[in-house]
Amino acid sequence: MKNSTLTLGNVLPADLKSKYADVLDVTMEEAIQIAKLSMPPSSKLSAIQVNEIEKIYKTYLAKHDDSSDSAYWNKSAADNTAYWSKTK
Amino acid sequence: MNIVNRNFQVETATISSLLKDFYVPELEGLIGIKCFTKIAKFTHRFPENLSPFFGYEIQLGNKNNQADFLFCISDPVEFRNYVDSEKSGFTGNSFDTETINGLDNFSEYWNAACAQSENQINNIWFEFDYNEIEKERPKACFFFGPKLNVNQLEVLLLTERVFGEIFDKNVGANTLKKLLEIVQALEKGTFISQIGMMNSRNDENLRLFIQGKKENWIKPFLQKLNYAHINNPEFITILEACNQIAENVDLDIDISTKLGDNIGLECYFNTAEKALSFLDYLEKNKLAISEKCTLLKNYIVCLAPDKTKSYQAFFSHFKIVFKPGLGFNSKAYFGYTTTRLAPELIRTRPFKSD
């Protein structure tokens, strides 16, 4: 897939931009590598900046867990099977 | 799965052969033979194993007997095999050349991500408008379903890359910023199930399908997003009716740097009886024409599960699209899914049981 030039500064809302002004030029790709994969940051980033990137990443953790994926509709697969199998 | 043709030759079963098996007389009024023949010809290049879930979209507000065709792919290996066969020219071309090159790169990425247990995509959907199916190299609308446990920043990056790769479209940073705002505005239990681009309509906005498990969640959510037409009385009336009759109402929105004006309400029902009562509502309120309603009712009534078959025909849902200043469009979706997945995917219980 193509490389991205998207930066944190491109997408963060105003309040987080002012809070984390020192890391706005960091690309999203690098931010994710640092925060998710614990990859070493580029040399220009300080320990404080790395810490800020990790905080930003945590702010945007998914609100759902894996188990949510199994139910396409609003019932679990088991519930749906039971419902659908009921006789009229 | 393979099938034996009249000359006793073994052929790979295709989506086309399944559609033909299921083209019952009750469907002919909704999808005319001319339209069906074109869809059957077009889908001949898609092997049955490629899609566990596919079907039609029909308009309820006009008399035409045409349908768009949609299909879902959830297995990246099957998709990779299909793209390989497309590239070799074995199946004939289903997509324009630029798109097939993009799909090649995308399918390689999807496969590799799965192999490394880093898959962030549940499934993908293609939608072909009927006027595209008629063309030699049809353009597709494309959607992907991000897994629900993916970090929201990663969803942005994924969105930028998927559409950049497949359609060579640059999803702007401000559009992605809007996407992040919307994801942040979602309450627990509400999630984006699909992110799409209506490429064949030359529309570079993102279309978001948002599923909500709570009742009456759409109005407060749109208020939170400062939707410009939230106080439109006609819209509110329709939204309330959807909430009242349907067991589940999901939301479609379009975004660019701002939230689009058009809103889609996807209405799901637990029983065929409920679906038909909603159809009555659409007809009574002139959101659907009587002829189409009668035809669709006849089709829904004839649906019956048959566990001896490998696929099941089913009614999926209705969608009402609100276009401020232009009114409403209503559509119906029905299709086919594997018998194995049927209990999980079929929401509307048919009248008949096997």
How would the blueprint of this fold be written?
The complex is a heterodimer of chains A (88) and B (354).
Chain A: H1 8-11, H2 14-19, H3 28-35, H4 47-59, H5 77-85
Helix pairs in contact in A: 3-4
Chain B: E1 2-4, E2 10-12, H1 15-21, H2 25-28, H3 33-43, E3 53-59, E4 68-73, H4 76-87, H5 97-115, E5 121-128, H6 130-133, E6 141-146, H7 152-167, H8 173-185, E7 190-197, E8 206-212, H9 218-224, H10 233-245, E9 248-255, E10 259-268, H11 272-284, H12 290-302, E11 311-323, E12 327-338, H13 342-345
Antiparallel strand pairs in B: 1-2, 3-4, 3-12, 4-5, 5-6, 6-7, 7-8, 8-9, 9-10, 10-11, 11-12
Helix pairs in contact in B: 1-3, 4-5, 5-7, 7-8, 11-12
Which properties best describe this structure?
heterodimer; A: about 90 residues; mainly alpha; 5 helices; about 45% helix; extended; B: about 350 residues; alpha+beta; 10-stranded antiparallel barrel; two-stranded antiparallel sheet; 13 helices; 12 strands; about 40% helix
Q: Compute the CA-based radius of gyration of chain B.
A: 20 Å
Q: Main β-sheet of chain B, in a few words?
A: 10 strands, antiparallel, barrel
The pLDDT mean of chain B sits at 92
Quickly give the structural class of chain A: mainly alpha
Q: Portion of residues in helices of chain B?
A: 25-40%
Commentary on this structure:
The complex is a heterodimer of chains A (88) and B (354). Chain A is mainly α and 88 residues long. Chain A has one domain (8-85). In chain A, 45% of the residues lie in helices and 0% in strands. Chain A has helices at 8-11, 14-19, 28-35, 47-59, 77-85. Chain B is 38% helix and 26% strand. Chain B is built from 13 helices and twelve strands. In chain B, the strands form two sheets. In chain B, strands 3-4-5-6-7-8-9-10-11-12 form a ten-stranded antiparallel beta barrel, surrounded by five helices. In chain B, helix 5 (97-115) runs antiparallel to helix 7 (152-167). The longest helix of chain B is centred in the N-terminal third of the chain and has 19 residues, at 97-115. Chain B starts with a strand and ends in a 9-residue tail after the last helix. Chain A binds chain B through residues 1-2, 4, 6, 10-13, 28-29, 31-32, 36, 56-57, 60-66, 68-69, 71-74, 77, 80-81, 83-88, and chain B through 105-106, 109, 122, 147-154, 156-157, 160-162, 164-165, 173-174, 176-177, 180-181, 184, 186, 188, 191, 213, 247-248, 268, 270, 342-347, 349, 353.
